[in-house]
Structure to design on (273 residues):
């Protein structure tokens, strides 16, 4: 299998995993293909973020307040992914809840069942509420476009780190088994550098009274988002023994929310952008 064919299969696996776009299945999925697919994950975030940014821009011209445009942008993310990651968040929350009292086997059984329980409902509502509220605040500061794109990228970068070598799979089958431990640290660091460079570039384009604040927020959102997603992975390794596809979805959504919270922050005394 050539390097070119591996990258082609990795791109197909990445698009099929992180979006609802129709794509031909990869011809072969091995550790190399899986690792490269997870390294490409932030690119899909950029594409989804751009589409959501267009929706946000159009909605801002139709509605005076930023809350509804922010909600429509977050809904666009869900639509473009068929709600797959939100479903993973719900299943993971239910699994953690069950695992706290009934053990690992029961937690994995609950997650596989697909039914949404009270923990799952609460987790989805709270995370989506945080995402919408934070994006709305970012819009008020003139950073709506940067936030909706940047958070989508950071959320998927967190998944890249969730698949670092040494992270185990909770099951011998499924998406988690295919991608767990497939990403080399050096590759993740290169992708992170690219994301940070993009954040500096996009944030630095703004020329207003905020000075360097947008660029600093963009850069800070990367480690904060990845760390928040990492907490989900650590909890999964303790409760479940490793990661699953649902855990990756939860990691993505939590990291996205954390990145948006950073991008929505604004130092006291600075005027909105």
């Amino acid at each position: 299998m050539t390097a070119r064919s591996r990258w082609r299969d990795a791109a197909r696996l990445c698009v099929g995993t992180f979006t609802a776009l129709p794509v031909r299945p990869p011809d072969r999925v091995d550790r190399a293909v899986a690792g490269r697919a997870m390294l490409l994950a932030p690119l899909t975030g950029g594409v989804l973020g751009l589409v959501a940014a267009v929706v946000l821009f159009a909605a801002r011209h139709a509605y005076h307040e930023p809350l509804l445009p922010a909600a429509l942008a977050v809904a666009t993310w869900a639509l473009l992914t068929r709600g797959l990651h939100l479903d993973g968040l719900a299943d993971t929350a239910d699994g953690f809840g069950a695992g706290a009292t009934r053990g690992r086997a029961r937690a994995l059984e609950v997650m596989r069942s697909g039914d949404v329980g009270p923990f799952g409902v609460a987790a989805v509502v709270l995370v989506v509420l945080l995402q919408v509220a934070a994006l709305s605040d970012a819009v008020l500061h003139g950073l709506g476009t940067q936030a909706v794109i940047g958070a989508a990228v950071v959320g998927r970068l967190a998944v890249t780190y969730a698949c670092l070598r040494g992270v185990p799979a909770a099951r011998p089958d499924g998406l988690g088994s295919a991608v767990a431990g497939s990403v080399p640290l050096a590759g993740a660091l290169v992708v992170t550098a690219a994301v940070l460079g993009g954040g500096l570039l996009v944030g630095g384009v703004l020329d207003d009274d905020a000075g360097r604040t947008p660029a600093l927020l963009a850069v800070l959102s990367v480690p904060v988002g990845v760390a928040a997603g990492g907490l989900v992975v650590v909890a999964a390794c303790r409760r479940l023994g490793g990661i699953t596809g649902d855990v990756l979805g939860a990691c993505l959504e939590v990291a996205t929310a954390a990145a948006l919270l950073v991008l929505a922050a604004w130092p006291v005394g600075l005027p909105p952008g």
The CA atoms of residues 155 and 253 lie 6 Å apart.
